[in-house]
Structures are given as C-alpha cells and as structure tokens.
Amino acid sequence: MNGTSHPLRNYCTKGVQRFCRGEYCAWMPSGGMLAYVRDGTTPHSSLLPRLTDDVFSTKAQQAGNVSDTSSSSHGRGHLKHPCVDIVITHVWLDAR
After folding, report:
1. Cβ contact 68:87 at 8 Å
2. Cβ neighbours of residue 47 under 8 Å, at least 6 residues apart?
C-alpha cells in the first residue's frame, strides 16, 4: 500500500467496510486483512483516526504485539440483516 497506487482510503472502504457491512464473514466472529506497505506506515497508527467514521461501527482498536499487526472490533447487530460482531486482524508487511 502506498499513497498513490493503493491508498489507505481504499483499504478502508473496499476492505474493512465490507466486513462491517456483513459482505465478508457475516457469521464469523473474526477475519483478517493483509497489506503490503511501501511507505513504512503501521496499521494501528494509520487506522486509528480513519475507523472512527460511523460506517465502520468500530467498538475498539488495539495495537498488536508487533508494529505490523493491529486489530479492530466492529458491531454488526444494527445492520438491516444483522450479523455477529467481528474482530479484524490487520497485518501490514513492509515491502519497501
């Protein structure tokens, strides 16, 4: 991921948001996303300000044990077709 070819916005709207809408893993309590990062950013510090938008229904965000891993918890019980809440593990691998 980098600022020009695959921006963080796409990671959130075309990835995380699909989990939050129940399009991915509707009946699973956990999911995962993998990104190759070319600018040295880390998932927790980058996602923390972005996942506060209501469309993500973020309940909590947590830094991982290492800087390339983070997790976010999202409520999905309010959806038109309710799903179980989900915890997404975000793994961002440095590809510089």
Report:
1. no
2. 8, 12, 16, 61, 70, 72, 90
Q: Cβ-count burial of 65 within 10 angstroms (0-12 exposed, 13-18 middle, 19+ buried)?
A: exposed
Q: List, for residues 70-96, the tens digit of each pLDDT value.
A: 999 999 999 999 999 999 999 999 999
Q: Which two tokens stand for residue 83?
A: 């799903």
pTM above 0.85, yes or no: yes
Report residue 73 as tokens. Answer: 């918890």
CA distance 60 to 87: 9
Please, how many CA atoms are within 13 Å of residue 60, restricted to the half-sphere of its CB? 7
Nearest CA to 55 out of 5, 7, 14 is that of 14
Q: pLDDT below 50 — which residues of the chain? A: none
